[in-house]
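Hi everyone,

Forwarding the result from last night's run.
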Amino acid sequence: MKIVAVVNDSTGEIQTVLDGYTHRFPYSGMPTRKIDITRQYGEIGEHAIVSIEMNGYEHLVSTERYSLVYDKEDGE
């Protein structure tokens, strides 16, 4: 599965959407070039640090405060 969006759990607002992904999310902000899980942590790996690349800058968020939206690709 591919990560296509990141949601702020506190506000419920979309943080960013993957550039080129066709969606119907209520989002009109800057799309991101890349969304990747860079590291997992926690007692059993239940949390992750997620790298979001926008405008040549890298923004790191934690799944403790942000949720990831996945697109189920064909064959999965």
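The chain is about 0% helix and 50% strand.

Cheers,
N.
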